[in-house]
Amino acid sequence: MTNAWPVLPDGSRLALREILIHGELSRAEIARSLGLSRASLTRAMRILVGHGLVVEVGTDVRGATGRPSELLHPSSGQWEFLGIKLTKDRLYAAVTDLGGRVLALHEESMPTTRAEDVAEQIRAVEERLRTAHPAMCAIGVSLPGDVRTVGGEAVVAHSLFLGWTDVPFARMVTERTGLAAFTANDVHALTAKEHWFGAGAATGGRSMALVTVGEGLGLGLIANGQVSTGEHGRLGRIGHLPVLGGGPDCGLGHLGCASSYLPSPVIVRNSGHTDATYDEVVERARSGDERALAAFADAGRALGVVLATVVHIADPSTLVLTGDGLPVYDIARSAVDEALRGALEPYTEPVTVEVQPFEFSEWARAGAVLAIRRLLAE
Questions:
Q1: CA pair distance 115, 87, nearest whole angstrom
Q2: What DSSP character marks residue 6?
Q3: What is the pLDDT of residue 1?
Q4: In what side-by-side order are the strands of the sheet with 25-26?
Q5: Which of 151, 163, 284, 287 is most buried, by the most CB atoms less than 10 A from its CB?
Q6: Taking Cα atoms as reference points, which of 220, 217, 216 lies closest to residue 190?
């Protein structure tokens, strides 16, 4: 028995989105933000309360009138969402409520990346988690790859890590679970999560850029309140952005691009400690190893140029940095800052980099937020 998400009229859908993004709000605040009449707002809220999507959580004095107002909050318990993050060998899952709060976490290895097998594995995970969370109504899957819409259907056009080409993965998951399912590039999904329930929400910005560093590099962009994906689902491929001219070959014939310095395996190679892991090279740098420090300094300069380029192109109100390669920002912070300042000229607005600690559970949570956002967009 599945929990089917209701079809909401525009007024209700937009009112719910306001509450999710901004937290507890009064009816008057929602009406002002959306430009709704009192009658229209009353109808919208009646539908949301009737479906158990929002609840009243007491009163507070809001606005200039000094009158107490009833506050509305996303409900918890009736509507829950399953988020999935796929890597090349592991599956991470998170169950959240409507407000994006994590209720359960799970992870396991992926014996195979064959699409049919992964969809079946997600079905088994959903079935296992449903025992404690029967209110799950949709699934969002974030994965490394390009996702685009073809004929009205989301298709994984290409994923190097998973070995997929033109895979209708959302449909495959829906067929096996009976739940609405959505897919997105993992960086784009994480950007959406940070926009509504992270750094973007904290600053209230309608524009945001998110840069990830790790085994690869990625960029997510919020413009006019929406996640930008590009014409072919490829927005954010910044790995081969030229950063430091005349540098080493990245492997594709580019000299001095971001991938010549920043990916974690490249930092290991550039340090000369090719028999070590990335974590071991990080520890060597922190212990004062000169070759490791030099590799991180080059990576830091490259990161500064990447961040400055993103600012020049997108002019975001919020700039977020995350990923399992964050030690480069910690170890080579002075190199990052110096390169960022230098490459920003003549940009004069202040730029603050919001660093978000890396956890795979947050990438799984991003899958759940992806499902929430897509349901509210339809």
A1: 13
A2: P
A3: 44
A4: 25-26, 68-74, 54-61
A5: 284
A6: 220
Give the range among 78-92, 94-108, 197-211, 305-319 with minimum mean pLDDT: 197-211
Beta pairing, strands 180-185 & 136-143: parallel
Taking each helix axis as running N to C, give the angle between helix 333-344 and helix 290-314, from 0 to 180 degrees, rounded to the nearest 10. 30
CA dist 333 and 112 (Å) reads 39
Share of the chain above pLDDT 70, in %: 95
Using CA atoms, how far apart are residues 319 and 61, in angstroms rounded to an integer?
34
Rounded-to-10 torsion of CA 361, 366, 368, 371? -160
Same fold for the pair 10-74 and 202-355: no
Q: What pLDDT digit, counting tens, does each position of 314-327 carry? A: 999 889 999 999 99
- What is the architecture, at CATH level 2, of domain 80-192+361-377? 2-Layer Sandwich (3.30)
Alpha helices in 51-182 (DSSP H): 115-130, 169-177
CA distance 309 to 354: 16
Cα separation of 208 and 319, whole Å?
6
Name the residue with tokens 């969002």.
140
Confidence of residue 68 (pLDDT cuts 50, 70, 90): low
Give the C-alpha separation, 88 to 164, whole Å: 11
Write out the H or E segment, with its range, that includes residue 193. helix 186-197
Residue ranges of domains in the chain: 10-74, 80-192+361-377, 202-355
- Is residue 2 pLDDT above 80, yes or no? no
25-29, 246-250, 348-352: range with lowest mean pLDDT:
246-250
| Cβ-based neighbours of 127, under 8 Å, separated by 6 or more | none
CATH of domain 202-355: 3.30.420.40
Rounded to an integer, what distance in angstroms lies between the CA atom of residue 313 and that of residue 116?
A: 39
CATH number of this structure's domain 10-74 = 1.10.10.10
Token readout for 40 is 């229209």
Mean pLDDT of all residues belonging to the chain: 90
Q: Which two tokens stand for residue 190?
A: 């994480």
Closest CA to 144 of 209, 216, 208: 216
Query: Exposure string (b/e) for 16-47, b if CB count within 10 Å is 16 or more?
Result: bbbbbbeeebbbbbbbeebebeeebbeebbeb
Residues, the chain, total? 378
